[in-house]
């Protein structure tokens, strides 16, 4: 059975100020997302499930379907604030989506095979998809998941702070902890730090971090359903709280449901956290095209 690629594309893109999921970066108008799908297809993925906002659906489908028809099976899921809340009321004024693990939960009933999940606006690189496919087809089961791990020093932005899932890994290459750090950057001395209410904390250059490239068996969706109810009990009253995939993954480990491998990749990662990042992304993609890693037009053939 071919694995599925799930794509998180429902974000509000508040920091970037536009729908960056549909912005062109490639020489023939390709989006970052298209490069991920192209890499997934050539790695052997058989289906792509897009998690989008319903008000965005028509535009998104018009953009993607002509390019992907006959290349990969497609499916669409809408992330709805009210989904899986039961009889709970939304906090007054809440408009922010419930986060990445809730987005995956919205795929309940759409995933019956091992799957990888990624962000729509991150460029992950071919090697990451090759390694994800190998894991999903040879090692993945309901007790064994994985994270594709990137070196922290290769994932920063020169234009502001970034959020990363900082991984702690044991001698077996297994995840023992993952903490979402939301204010990571180099300080004035050039040291990578994250900030919280207690001040600055340094992080090693090669710290393994999650870029929201996870590989799961389908049962993880049900695990997220349980976790979301606990999240709502504890934080559902907050206007900006989010149920993150790293949080759900850490709970999987803490509850001793199984293990999560951290599989390092040599792929080049880059992304658009801020609008000022866009020219660098275009430059990097152009270089990869010049190096023949990608054709000048992804869907020409």
Outline the structure in words.
The chain is α/β, with parallel strands linked by helices and 301 residues long. It has helices spanning 32-43, 57-68, 100-105, 126-138, 220-235, 245-254, 278-290; strands at residues 4-8, 47-52, 73-78, 115-119, 122-123, 144-151, 162-169, 175-186, 192-196, 199-202, 208-216, 259-264, 270-271. It has a single domain (4-290), classed as Spore Coat Polysaccharide Biosynthesis Protein SpsA, Chain A (Alpha-Beta Complex), CATH 3.90.550. The protein is built from seven helices and 13 strands. The strands form two sheets. Strands 1, 2, 3, 4, 6, 7, 8, 9, 10, 11 and 12 form an eleven-stranded mixed beta sheet that branches. A two-stranded antiparallel sheet has the order 5-13. β7 and β8 (175-186) form a beta hairpin. α1 packs across α4. It starts with a strand and ends in an 11-residue tail after the last helix.
What summary fits the major beta sheet?
11 strands, mixed
Uncertain segments of ≥5 residues (pLDDT<50)? 12-18
- Count of individual beta strands: 13
Q: Please, how many helices? A: 7
CATH architecture field: Alpha-Beta Complex
Q: What is the string of SSEs from the N terminus onward? A: EHEHEHEEHEEEEEEHHEEH
Protein structure class: alpha/beta
Number of domains: 1
- Rounded to the nearest angstrom, the distance between the terminal CA atoms is 26 Å
CATH H-level name... which superfamily? Spore Coat Polysaccharide Biosynthesis Protein SpsA, Chain A
What's the short story on this structure?
The chain contains seven helices and 13 strands.
């Amino acid at each position: 059975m071919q694995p599925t690629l799930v794509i998180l594309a429902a974000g509000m893109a508040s920091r970037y100020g536009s729908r960056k999921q549909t912005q062109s970066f490639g020489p023939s108008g390709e989006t970052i997302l298209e490069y991920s799908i192209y890499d997934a297809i050539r790695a052997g993925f058989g289906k792509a499930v897009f998690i989008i906002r319903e008000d965005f659906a028509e535009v998104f489908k018009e953009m993607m379907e002509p390019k992907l028809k006959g290349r990969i099976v497609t499916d669409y899921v809408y992330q709805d604030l009210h989904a899986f809340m039961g009889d709970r009321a939304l906090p007054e004024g809440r408009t922010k989506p419930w986060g990445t693990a809730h987005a995956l939960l919205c795929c309940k009933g759409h995933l019956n095979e091992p799957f990888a999940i990624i962000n729509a606006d991150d460029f992950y690189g071919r090697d990451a998809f090759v390694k994800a496919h190998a894991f999903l087809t040879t090692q993945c089961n309901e007790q064994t998941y994985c994270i594709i791990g990137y070196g922290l020093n290769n994932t920063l932005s020169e234009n502001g702070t970034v959020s990363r899932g900082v991984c702690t890994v044991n001698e077996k290459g297994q995840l023992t902890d993952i903490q979402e750090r939301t204010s990571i950057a180099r300080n004035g001395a050039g040291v990578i730090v994250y900030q919280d209410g207690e001040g600055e904390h340094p992080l090693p250059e090669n710290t393994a971090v999650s870029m929201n490239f996870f590989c799961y068996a389908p049962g993880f969706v049900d695990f997220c359903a349980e976790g979301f109810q606990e999240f709502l009990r504890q934080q559902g009253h907050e206007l900006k709280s989010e149920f993150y995939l790293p949080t759900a993954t850490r709970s999987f480990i803490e509850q001793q449901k199984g293990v999560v491998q951290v599989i390092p990749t040599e792929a080049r990662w880059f992304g658009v956290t801020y609008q000022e990042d866009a020219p660098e992304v275009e430059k990097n993609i152009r270089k990869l095209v010049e190096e023949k890693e990608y054709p000048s037009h992804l869907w020409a053939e």
